[in-house]
Prior knowledge:
47% of the residues lie in helices and 20% in strands. By secondary structure, it is an alpha/beta fold. Strands 1-2-4-5-6-7-8-9 form an eight-stranded mixed barrel, surrounded by six helices. Residues 1-7 and 280-290 have low confidence and may be disordered. The site of ligand C2E has 21 residues, from strand 2, helix 2, helix 3 and strand 6. Residues 45, 61-62, 73-75, 78, 91, 94, 118, 120, 150, 180-181, 235-238, 256-257, 262 line the site of ligand C2E.
Amino acid sequence: CAKREGRNRATAFEPRLREAQLARIGIRDALGLAIAAGQLALHYQPQVCARTGRLQGAEALLRWTHPDLGTVPPSMFIPIAEEGRLIIELGRWVVAEACRQMAAWHAAGHGYVRVAVNLSVRQTRDEALPAFIDHVLRTTAVPARCLELEVTESVLMEDTDLAVSQLARLRARGLQLSIDDFGTGYSSMAYLRRLPIDKLKIDMAFVQAVPGEGEAIASAILAMADAFGLQVVAEGVETTAQRDFFRDAGCQHLQGYLFGRALPATEFAASWLVAHGTPGAPGDDSGRHP
Ligand code: C2E
Ligand code: MG
Ligand code: MG
Ligand code: MG
């Protein structure tokens, strides 16, 4: 009968399901200890000006080195952290570490490099977030305009009012706000207008479909951004053809392996802040208005 068949099917899958569940729990528990154990680090990927190729800022990307598992990619552990409050703790660590690093670069004479951090949807609903960010900016003495927050369109899907008002509060303090992976979500233009944002980051999938079908989508996003007075970043730029397309289409910022991968802070400083000149250094005012 159907019932028995169903049960048989369930038992056949059970061991693998349980294994997957245990692996998730294992990762969650290990991740909970990762901050205190010093297993987390931020790597920095350059963002350059589309016209000049000069450094404009960096995106901070979280890296976790587990003693047994080795490097665990964010695609593997961020979704697990997002299931609970752990993402709040991780996200705070990311903000604090990015600001600590900016202050250290500043003290080393590199000027303030604008750093973008990724915020998970759950963090935008943490009512203590604006006060936490204020506290970090105050204690590190990093100007608010040097910190950028990247959120995905999914902040617009649920509890919109709280998230929007929190983001608006932060932006009113001078922080920059961008929409990550733009074009993959469901945000309508009406919703987009409600969001207090500065920038759109065109999703890598469209960028990598250039030359080809990505061109029409990218052009439409650029036209819309222009009409709304938003800046645009093309992310995942890997070829010179993609670079040329986006530069000629009026996209202001580029990010991708063509320019550089995310690097540990010391390597980022050595290859980008020293070799390529420092934004905000004497004679260069590109960094003074990041
Ligand atoms: P994202 O924020 O969209 O970050 C861009 C991802 O694309 C990064 O992967 C980056 O290394 C990769 N990438 C950049 N340029 C290229 C390119 O030219 N080609 C290709 N193939 N890939 C490129 P990563 O570091 O593995 O991060 C994946 C995602 O994990 C991020 O996507 C973000 O959603 C999430 N993530 C990373 N760090 C954090 C964090 O601190 N907090 C939160 N909430 N999420 C994070
Ligand atoms: Mg991002
Ligand atoms: Mg993205
Ligand atoms: Mg993403």
